[in-house]
Amino acid sequence: MKKLLIYIAAFAMILAMNTSCEDMGSLEEHPKKVDATTFMANAKEVESVINSIYFQLRRDPGFSRYLIVLEEGLADYCIGRGNYATAYDTGRTSGGVGFSKDSWAVLYRAIRFA
Fold first, then answer.
1. What pTM does this model have?
2. Is the pLDDT of residue 105 over 60?
3. If DSSP codes are grouped into helix, strand and coil, which group holds residue 110?
4. Which listed residue, of 6, 14, 18, 92, carries a Cα 20 to 30 Å from 60's Cα?
């Protein structure tokens, strides 16, 4: 019985040694990402990066509506409800906290997919 197991093991080792990776085709490379050293070498690639950032900002319907407010809210003071609070001073109410958190999430998602 031991002799049979030794013969089977020897046959399996010989069979494994005679196969090569080229026969199986397992060494073909299919890159899923762009090489960072050669990317953005021309205007078309730069434009694709900018478009991917703006797509992330536009895909959220609430954020795309308030994008201008976020940019201009920090520029100056607005007289809104009878006080001199800034337009982006949303940390005082629970609704404002959710809006700011979601806005930052969209901005970081745009950076991540750039």
1. 0.42
2. yes
3. helix
4. 92
> Pseudo-torsion of CA 79, 80, 83, 85, nearest 10°?
-90
Q: Where are the alpha helices (DSSP H) in 19-93?
A: 21-24, 43-58, 61-72
CA–CA gap between residue 105 and residue 71 (Å, rounded): 16
DSSP state, residue 41: -
User: Are 62 and 102 spatial neighbours (Cβ–Cβ below 8 Å)?
Assistant: yes
Provide the sign of the torsion angle of the four alpha carbons 95, 99, 100, 101, taken in this order.
Answer: positive
As a whole number of angstroms, the distance between CA 26 and CA 11 comes to 23
CA distance 59 to 62: 9
**52 Ramachandran zone, left/alpha/beta (phi>0; psi -120 to 50):** alpha
Q: What is the pLDDT of residue 110?
A: 82
